[in-house]
Structure formats: C-alpha cells, structure tokens
Design a protein that fits this description.
This protein is mainly beta. It contains two helices and nine strands; from the N terminus they run βαβββαβββββ. Pfam families: Phage_TTP_16.
C-alpha cells in the first residue's frame, strides 16, 4: 500500500471577505462573493503562525511544573505581488490599511473550485495593517508585506454552510 503525500500545490484558496454573517458556519455565497488572493500572493506569501500561551496551574505543594493551554494568537502576514496596472493591483487596492475583513483559507482542494457547503475552512477576522513596501530586488517582482491583525476569535475549524 502506497501512502501518497498531500500536496499544497494549487490546493489553497485564500479569500478576503468583506461581509460575513458567521465565522463558524460561513455561507458559501458570502465566501464566493469575496476577493480571491491566492494568485496574487507569492508562493510563500500566506503566513499564519499560531501560538498558545501557557497558564501555570501548579500549586505551592506541587512537585513538578504543570500548565494548561491558554489564549491563542495568530500572527498573520500576507506577501503579494504588485501589478503594473492599477485595475489589476487587486490585493493592494483591496487590503487597504485599517480595513476590517475576514480572511478565509481553504486547504486541500483546488483553488479554482468555489466554496461549497461542507468545505472545511479557516476564518480569521482581521484588520489590514500598513503596506510594508519591500526593497526592489533585481530579477524579482515588486512585493508588499502586510500584517493582518486578528481582532476577534478566529475559527480554524469552521465548516462552510449552504
């Protein structure tokens, strides 16, 4: 029996959603009305780094250090390519600093396919940070790095609703 690796190539959909009625069961129509970003991001342009605080639950009489999981934090950065024509510069024009969006991420399914009921999806309510213009590099596209500030509880185990 062969065990095939699950590839990420072309199988990640990233969408900036401007209106969302539910983070735990986002409607497919609202996700599909969003702005797809995966073809504008660099290959390594989706940066989501979760971390979790440790809560000390030891007591004076404890003989070992113990802890429980505390609050979660998501450090989110997007790196995208600038476009020559303003009309084509969709990521730059959409992700304006201080704009609140819901960043939707679907993995393990072709990005060309629309969101459908039952799809697992990650939802990150975010405020767009400032444009971090990257220095020009010979033989590379011009890039912007932008931090997304996760301002409300993320749902990394959401399921798309009809």
């Amino acid at each position: 029996m062969a065990f095939e690796d699950l590839l990420g190539d072309g199988n990640v959909k990233v969408t900036a959603v401007l209106t969302l009625s539910s983070t735990s069961a986002p409607p497919a129509a609202e996700l599909n009305a969003g702005i797809d970003l995966q073809m504008l991001l660099t290959k390594d342009g989706l940066g989501i780094e979760p971390s979790q605080a440790s809560v000390d639950n030891g007591a004076l009489g404890s003989r070992s250090n113990t802890s429980r999981g505390g609050t979660s934090t998501y450090n989110i950065t997007l790196t995208y390519k600038r476009k020559q024509l303003e009309a084509d510069d969709i990521a730059y024009n959409t992700l304006t600093p201080k704009l609140d969006i819901w960043l939707a991420v679907r993995r393990n399914k072709a990005h060309e396919l629309p969101y459908v009921a039952g799809d697992p999806v990650e939802i990150y309510p975010s405020e767009c940070g400032i444009y971090q213009r990257q220095p020009p590099v010979l033989d590379e596209v011009q890039k912007i790095v932008q931090q997304m500030f996760n301002h409300s509880d993320a749902d990394t185990e959401a399921t798309v609703a009809a």
